[in-house]
Amino acid sequence: MSLDLDSYGRRVEEFVSALDREYHLHFSGQKPSYEVEAIYESHAGLFERERIEQLREAAGANGDAGRRAAYLLELAVGGFMGRATAEQEAAIAEREAALELELAGQRIPYRLAPVVQANEADAGRREAIESQRLGLLDQHLNRLHLEALELAHGLVRELGWASYAEAYAELRRIDLVALARQAQRFLEATRTSYEPLLGPQLERFVGTPLARSRRSDLPRFFRAPALDAGFPAERLIPAFAETVAGLGLALEDQPNIVLDAEQRPTKAPRAYCAPVRVPDEVYLVVPRVGGRQDYAALFHEGGHAQHYANVDPGQPPEFRYLGDNSVTESFAFLLEHLTEDPIWLAERLEGADADAVCSHARAVKLLFLRRYAAKIAYELELHGAAPDLAAMPGRYAALIGDATGFEWSPETWLSDVDGGFYVAGYLRAWAIEARWRRALRERFDERWFERREAGDWLRSLWRGGQRLRGDELLAETLGEELDFASLVAEFPQR
Fold first, then answer.
1. What pTM value is reported for the model?
2. Which residue among 139, 171, 203 closes a domain?
3. pLDDT tens, 447-483?
4. Statement to judge: residues 250 and 107 lie in one domain
């Protein structure tokens, strides 16, 4: 049976839209069940092995036909595994929504625990919350995570790849080993600057130096309540609306973006953007933690929302929904970075202490970059040809602990892993965002976020969706290569 990419793409759009809608309803706390199994079953024809083989052959074509087939192939392989692991995925989501911690007579929803932890001033209580949450993860969820992992590893071998890592290097067309080498060089280049940058910020915001801080302190550190006066809750939505309006992207003229900042007990603690119908129906969901963290989350997910909402509707579905997610992540990081830009702070948040905000934000960014640089090395081992799964929790804790300087908990060795090597998308996106930011300043000056012309330039990039991969878009737009040099330059050695 021949493969018609147009017909197949339309069916993929229906599947992805249904899956994103279910994700949104459940993780926004509006629906307790997570009925993904039925969605996979109703679209099972998309993931037949014959289709995967046809797409793998078609992906070798030149030009956009090859791109389309490659993106659809990644979706088909992911769907093949997703269908097989849908039972575990649904069970994890529903158990997360139902689990509760109990602390001194207070019942805390499992998903809300990081928010409570971030707002807890007492280090002992933060440690107790973390300990209980990790205990519930290990007792109720890790078995399901492990089942899903082992199923996925077996399925990619059935499809002809030696390992999950080999499969996704081909599917995403990213040299994951080379990226991990770049990440390792970043770790080495920033090792001497890390403690001098992070240590004083930890002392200021959690009261202890790096050597005596615990992982349970990190939600409080990211939350940084001492900065709250400069980030009032009532300015959260207006500040975002005013910023995108300055770019000529008034929210009142974008009915396709639906903003959800309402608090619900089972709402996921991580902000997200759900592009249910691109570009016509995009949900921007932000849980309230408080302070600067809410601003960073809203602007990050707002970057995704603007990207998806401005895609040319005439693009084929695979360029609107699929492709290299380092592209959309780079635009998310671009808007997020404004919440630590001293000029933006002076314009939008008069009460913010720009020096304090920028110092804290740089420390947080370096911590995240180093953690993700270690994560890609860990995931290459975890998803290799013959991983020693019994050793992986310890290996995970050692790698992340060495990179961050914290004693890292091994219980999150699976829950901290996003499917399809999404870690590579984040790392590439950080590097790309630094180039977008520099280009905007050079073309439109330091106040680019107030220039409609800058918004026009961004829209010209957004219209293509994810037709080009991140390195291709960077080369075509700015004539530059994707590397970590610009990131290393942000953290000079000491």
1. 0.94
2. 171
3. 999 999 999 999 999 999 999 999 999 999 999 999 9
4. no
